[in-house]
């Protein structure tokens, strides 16, 4: 049954650019296929262990960026003083050991998808920088002198409580408002057991996606 659902061909309907959709009231794949067709940022919310990362992989595979890189960063597990360099790279001399400039994950994801797990754990200063990336499609590496353009789709994930502004960590309001324009909500286990089990039966995609080929960055 799962294989048949994954293999089907779907005529994608028009999807409003401002939607909050709940998995428990809709067919899982229909929702994800519609969201995947939009080349915009997406926020995935829900409790732990409901398949938010797998959902992000599926959105990538069903999008026009499927042949390009899928790069991910867990914002909660990355040391706060390393997140900016990890995401945006650095210029030469940005810090003691940085003799030459280094590219970050955003550059690695060029043409493809950057998945930010636990996005609400980003320091507020980094949230502001992420908002600029979403709005202007550009960023400045740490210690860099030049603005870099970016062609990358951001998919972010966080808990449902944080997405509603109730989490313990502060969430930059403008960033939250931007991400919530296209939000997929997963229910708690008691309300969405069928959908959660469905995701647990999907094949986990590889995490070691090849870098985006040259044509992806055009």
State the strand order across the main sheet: 1-8-2-7-4-3
Number of helix segments?
A: 9
At the fourth CATH level, what is the homologous superfamily? P-loop containing nucleotide triphosphate hydrolases
How much strand content do the residues show?
5-15%
Oligomer: single chain
Radius of gyration: 17 Å
CATH domain fold name? Rossmann fold
| Tally of strands | 8
Protein name: Anaerobic nitric oxide reductase transcription regulator NorR
GO molecular function, one term: ATP binding
Domain Sigma-54 factor interaction: 26-196
Keywords: ATP-binding, Nucleotide-binding
Explain how this protein is built.
Residues 1-21 and 191-215 have low confidence and may be disordered. Strand 5 and strand 6 form a beta hairpin. The N and C termini lie far apart (38 Å). Helix 2 packs across helix 3. This protein has a single domain, classed as Rossmann fold (3-Layer(aba) Sandwich). It is of the alpha/beta class. It has helices at residues 2-7, 28-36, 52-61, 83-88, 105-108, 124-136, 160-163, 173-179, 193-200; strands at 19-22, 42-45, 70-74, 113-117, 138-139, 148-149, 153-158, 182-185. It has a 6-stranded parallel beta sheet. Strands 5-6 form a two-stranded antiparallel ribbon. The protein is globular.
